[in-house]
């Protein structure tokens, strides 16, 4: 046992561990947790590939070449909103589902549940980290697009509308990510989240105008959150329209359904 | 402060058809070390996880620092430290940053650097959790459990798989917590850990408490006689030959353990009777000795099983 002089040390024992419990202030806890989430995301090579490299490569590859037919108009003006939507989905859905799935599997969610950080604080921290990564994505993709000659329509109001769409899209994708991560095994989440990413990349009008798709699958395609976000961003940033109602509604429905199901079925371990 | 650190009464926990905890009761005092000792699958982890608020009890009453771990979780969390059996840390989180994160959840934490040094993790500060050795991962979890200066800590198998040096560091820390007035409830299947650390030992088997008390209570009351032979003995015949009510148990490796409820105890008369029986049966009792019982013997006697084998 450690030698201690009782005069200098309160409680007659080790001052280091003398009980002095107390929770930190909530904003401080959320900030610390968000910082941890963000650092882990930015350090994860596979996630960076998904969230940064692939969107930029698609934008450069298809924006600077004539590999795909975007149906008239400027190639980069058409592609950029789709790539932005893809970037939002990759972070809020794919990355978050895989990350949270493995945190659940490794008992991280359970361990955090034993700290003073409330569950709502953990969700807030995850959301902040996702939004921070998305801010970097939007900055990088916009810079590359502008270098390729992108001229976004809509002005400052258009940017605001795009921001609103991205926030709602983030909410929809995050709730679906947590639904998947909180119900499936981590390996199943890994496979399913990647599969969904690829399928939605193909179906969601990210790279091709959705009127090119067969009529049979059009109603399905248009109900997807990725299509709603893509067509909403395109309506604002390419066509210069106001807030697009139908895409916002689709995203709102996905958010409500995802949130209700996730809060009902999410298992913390 | 009048209440106990932990009070568990008639606790029951079932998983499907299996009953993991079958009416278990014990009390852990504040500022003392209580060890839940038992083989794997005895119900130790289920019990501790119910106390931590991770699982719901199917029946029974649990009070932690006088509060209900499920209903009063919010109030308890800052006051209680938790070390899970394994994992609990993101694989990509570095040891130092994880501990700083845990510190930031508390109003008045122990400085992370101090804990890293105490537990020999200074060289691993920037190492991601997945690259830490098993022992380093254990010590990091221990550090995270105590960083908030809790009143009570739950340590689930804190030294499982540790090398002797790391185990010693953990034992020293537990002793220091105790002297600082922190209550410690730990699970272990190491006898020597319970003997060395615990003020109060609760022996658990098949989801029930089979004995509880201080190590001295559990072992001092009785002495035991041990010897080894090269041949198989008729333990029933030996038992009948011995005075009073005695019990003879055969252990692996030709070991025999004898305890007795004879008022005269394991005295010279008893020894003489035993060696006479041995002589009559042509048996040489090698390494014959009379000694204080160990917790291991107590466990064996109570459950009929060797703790390390089960």
UniProtKB/TrEMBL annotation, chain A:
It is a multi-pass membrane protein. InterPro entries: ABC2_TM (IPR013525), ABC2_TM_bact-type (IPR047817), ABC_2_transport (IPR000412), Nod_factor_ABC_transporter (IPR051784). It comes from Marinitenerispora sediminis. It is found in: Cell membrane; Membrane. One of its GO terms (biological process) is response to antibiotic. It comes from the Bacteria. The chain crosses the membrane at residues 48-68, 80-102, 123-151, 157-179, 191-210, 245-266. Pfam families: ABC2_membrane (PF01061). Belongs to the ABC-2 integral membrane protein family. Residues 1-20 are annotated as: Disordered. One of its GO terms (cellular component) is ATP-binding cassette (ABC) transporter complex. Keywords: Antibiotic resistance, Cell membrane, Membrane, Transmembrane, Transmembrane helix, Transport. This is Transport permease protein. Residues 42-269 form the ABC transmembrane type-2 domain. GO terms for molecular function: ABC-type transporter activity.
TrEMBL record, chain B:
This is ABC transporter. Coiled coil: none annotated. SUPFAM superfamilies: P-loop containing nucleoside triphosphate hydrolases. Residues 6-231 form the ABC transporter domain. InterPro entries: AAA+_ATPase, ABC_transporter-like_ATP-bd, ABC_transporter-like_CS, ABC_transporter_ATP-binding, P-loop_NTPase. PANTHER family: ABC TRANSPORTER ATP-BINDING PROTEIN (PTHR42711). GO terms for molecular function: ATP binding; ATP hydrolysis activity. It is found in: Cell membrane. Its main location: membrane. It comes from the Bacteria.
């Amino acid at each position: 046992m450690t030698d201690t002089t009782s005069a200098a040390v309160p409680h007659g024992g080790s001052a280091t561990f003398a009980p002095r419990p107390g929770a930190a202030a909530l904003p401080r806890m959320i900030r610390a947790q968000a910082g941890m989430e963000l650092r882990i995301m930015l350090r994860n090579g596979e996630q960076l590939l998904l969230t940064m490299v692939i969107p930029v490569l698609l934008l450069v590859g298809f924006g600077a070449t004539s590999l795909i037919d975007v149906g008239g108009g400027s190639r980069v003006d058409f592609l950029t909103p789709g790539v932005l939507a893809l970037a939002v989905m990759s972070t809020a859905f794919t990355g978050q589902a895989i990350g949270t799935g493995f945190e659940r599997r490794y008992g991280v969610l359970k361990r955090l549940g034993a700290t003073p950080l409330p569950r709502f604080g953990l969700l807030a921290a995850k959301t902040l980290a996702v939004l921070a990564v998305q801010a970097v994505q939007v900055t990088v993709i916009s810079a590359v697009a502008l270098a390729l000659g992108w001229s976004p329509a809509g002005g400052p109001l258009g940017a605001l509308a795009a921001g609103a769409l991205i926030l709602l899209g983030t909410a929809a994708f995050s709730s679906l990510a947590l639904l998947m991560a909180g119900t499936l095994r981590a390996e199943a989440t890994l496979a399913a989240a990647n599969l969904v990413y690829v399928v939605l990349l193909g179906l969601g009008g990210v790279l091709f105008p959705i009127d090119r798709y067969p009529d049979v699958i059009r109603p399905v395609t248009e109900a997807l959150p990725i299509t709603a976000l893509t067509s909403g961003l395109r309506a604002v940033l390419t066509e210069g329209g106001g807030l697009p109602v139908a895409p916002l509604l689709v995203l709102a429905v996905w958010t409500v359904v995802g949130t209700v199901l996730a809060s009902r079925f999410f298992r913390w371990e | 402060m009048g209440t106990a650190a932990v009070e568990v009464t008639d606790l029951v926990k079932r998983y499907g058809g299996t009953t993991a905890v079958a009416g278990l009761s014990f009390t852990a005092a504040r500022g003392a070390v209580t060890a839940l000792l038992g083989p794997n699958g005895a119900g130790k982890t289920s019990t501790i996880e119910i106390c931590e608020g991770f699982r719901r009890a199917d029946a029974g009453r649990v009070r932690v620092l006088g509060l209900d771990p499920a209903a009063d979780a919010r109030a308890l969390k800052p006051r209680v430290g938790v070390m899970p059996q394994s994992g609990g840390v993101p694989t990509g989180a570095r040891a130092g940053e994880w501990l700083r994160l845990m510190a930031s959840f508390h109003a008045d934490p122990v400085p992370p650097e101090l804990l890293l040094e105490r537990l020999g993790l200074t060289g691993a500060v920037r190492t991601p959790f997945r690259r830490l050795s098993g022992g380093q991962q254990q010590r990091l979890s221990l550090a995270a459990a105590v960083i908030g200066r809790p009143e009570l800590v739950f340590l689930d198998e804190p030294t499982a798989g540790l090398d002797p040096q790391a185990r010693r560091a953990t034992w020293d820390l537990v002793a220091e917590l105790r002297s600082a007035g922190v209550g410690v409830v730990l699970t272990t299947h190491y006898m020597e850990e319970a003997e060395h650390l615990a003020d109060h030992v609760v022996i658990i088997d098949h989801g029930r408490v089979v004995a509880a008390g201080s190590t001295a209570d559990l072992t001092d009351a009785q002495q035991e006689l041990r010897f080894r032979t090269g041949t198989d003995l008729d333990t029933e015949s030996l038992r009948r030959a011995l005075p009073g009510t005695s019990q003879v148990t055969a252990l692996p490796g030709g070991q025999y353990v004898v305890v007795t409820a004879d008022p005269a105890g394991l005295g010279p008369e008893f020894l003489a009777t035993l060696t006479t029986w041995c002589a009559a049966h042509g048996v040489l009792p090698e390494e014959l000795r009379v000694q204080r019982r160990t917790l291991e013997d107590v466990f064996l006697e109570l459950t009929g099983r060797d703790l390390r084998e089960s």
